[in-house]
TrEMBL record, chain A:
Keyword hit for Heme: no
Pfam families in the cross-refs: C2-set_2, Ig_2
Encoding gene per record: LOC106457839
Keywords: Disulfide bond, Membrane
Protein name as it appears in the record: Uncharacterized protein LOC106457839
Record Gene3D superfamilies: Immunoglobulins
CDD domains the UniProt entry points to: Ig (cd00096)
Compartments reported by the entry: Membrane
From TrEMBL, chain B:
Name of the protein in its database record: Uncharacterized protein LOC111088928
PROSITE patterns linked: IG_LIKE (PS50835)
Taxonomic lineage of the native organism: Eukaryota, Metazoa, Ecdysozoa, Arthropoda, Chelicerata
UniProt gene name: LOC111088928
Signal peptide: 1-24
Pfam families: V-set (PF07686)
Annotated Ig-like domain residues: 20-139
Entry keywords, A to Z: Signal
InterPro entries: Ig-like_dom, Ig-like_dom_sf, Ig-like_fold, Ig_sub, Ig_V-set
Length: 293, 141
């Protein structure tokens, strides 16, 4: 008996709900997917998912910055049509009722995209949604380190520059010494140059005083890394600099007085030069003897 | 006064300069209109095709943020807007008339009240060209 009552109730509820559902859920735009940021040269698919809720579709129109460029009208022939717009190359063979396929993304492809769906006569119910597409241009080559010397002595100042290739947006640059990111104690200056084509070049300088912790096995690796967030772009340039011979002389003395160290170096160098001279003389003598025999 | 005139001249000059940029634009600049309570107003909407081989397919009038047009002219089968099928939502049925003879075409709204204040959007679907939008902001005094 209880079970029967329950059944009746369920049926009643269904009857009450059905007309309510068809009245309160008309055409609905479920989701608009516009990939962003995209990269120049890419192919992208923009998706506009909608639920007609039993209505008949009249049109799906796509706009970029409020200018229509693609429409899908089931009663037209062909249903999918492209309205030429600079920067937007639509691949009609891949575009459908709920999606539009753009080939070869260019800088001009960036903008606000709108999808607009309308149902058939007599109501012409219309829903729309907008989303922005940003377009990035990746650098064609890695960053370059300039201004470095091949050899440095402890106490010398290193001044180097890192320049990225043109990109949009400007690349972020970071310095690493022996794979360690440089701390705030290192003097760095970041700047960007905007070019006529809308692309930017980033520059980051690095200036620091060498101490002997910088050298491991007589060399130091300086790396500059360029990256563009959100598109997982990273490229770097690494350079190896060597410690001057003098680094072998006691670090303590170097710290005490650099000029004194230089004097010592001259003295150290003197016997070497003498040995060299002696060797040259000996070779000459040997050659003379050889020719005589 | 002279300064103002110069400004007007200058701004129209600027508009002229910017005109080629908006060549691909399918929307008309928004218009502001004032209506007097109890009188009729005419809301303009340019429905003329840009090329002689094109025709109007549909004219839809929307109000504010409503997703359903309150007035539609369906000329998809008629051949010309004059032979199209007009229909309007209940609240507007007796007060609206869309004239396609005048240039620009106008939606006549009879005996306006304060409730008619708001934004009116006219959407024109062409058989070939891009969809054209016009926006009119109506205030009632």
């Amino acid at each position: 008996m209880v079970l029967r009552e329950f059944k009746v109730e369920v049926v009643l509820h269904l009857f009450l709900l059905l007309p309510a559902v068809s009245l309160t859920t008309p055409l609905r735009l479920v989701m608009l997917d516009v990939p962003s940021p995209t990269v120049v040269g890419q192919e992208v698919e923009l998706t506009c998912s909608f639920d007609l809720n039993g209505d008949i579709l009249y049109s799906v129109k796509w706009y970029k910055d409020d200018v229509e460029f693609y429409r899908y009208v089931p009663n037209d022939w062909p249903p999918g049509q492209f309205l030429p717009l600079s920067g937007v190359r639509v691949d009609l063979s891949k575009s459908k009722e709920q999606s539009v396929y753009i080939r070869n993304v260019a800088l001009e492809t960036a903008g606000i995209y709108k999808c607009e769906v309308s149902t058939e006569a007599p109501v012409f119910d219309t829903v729309s949604a907008k989303k922005e597409m940003k377009v990035y241009v990746l650098p064609t080559e890695g960053p370059k380190i300039t201004g470095r010397h091949l050899k440095y002595r402890v106490g010398d100042t290193v001044t180097v520059n890192c320049t990225s290739a043109k990109s949009k947006p400007a690349a972020t640059l970071n310095w690493y010494i022996n794979d360690e990111p440089v701390g705030p104690e290192y003097e760095t200056i970041y700047s960007t140059i905007l070019h006529d084509d809308g692309l930017e070049v980033s520059c980051l300088s690095l200036r620091f005083l060498i101490n002997h912790d910088h050298f491991t096995n007589g060399n130091m690796r300086i790396k500059c890394e360029a990256s563009i967030p959100r598109v997982r772009y990273t490229m770097s340039d690494e350079t190896l600099v060597f410690s001057d011979q003098l680094q072998h002389v006691s670090g303590l003395r170097i710290r005490e007085n650099l000029s004194k160290v230089r004097d010592t170096a001259a003295i150290v160098a003197t016997p070497v030069r003498w040995i060299h001279h002696l060797l040259s003389v000996l070779t000459l003598v040997y050659n003379c003897l050889f020719f005589r025999i | 006064m002279k300064k103002l005139k110069f400004c007007t001249f200058f701004s129209s000059f600027l508009l002229w300069i910017h005109a080629p940029e908006s060549l691909g634009q399918s929307s008309e600049p928004p218009i502001s209109l004032k209506g007097v309570q109890g009188k009729d107003v005419e809301l303009p909407c340019n429905i003329s095709p840009l090329t002689p081989d094109d025709e109007v397919a549909l004219v839809l009038w929307y109000r504010d943020d409503s997703s359903t047009p309150f007035y539609s002219l369906d000329a998809r089968r008629g051949g010309s807007p004059g032979h199209g099928r007009h229909s309007s939502s209940d609240s507007y049925a007796t007060r609206t008339y869309f004239s396609t003879v005048s240039k620009p075409a106008t939606l006549q709204l009879a005996t306006v009240t304060k409730e008619d204040k708001g934004t009116y959007i006219c959407r024109v679907d062409f058989k070939k060209a891009r969809t054209r939008y016009s926006e009119i902001s109506l205030s009632i005094i």
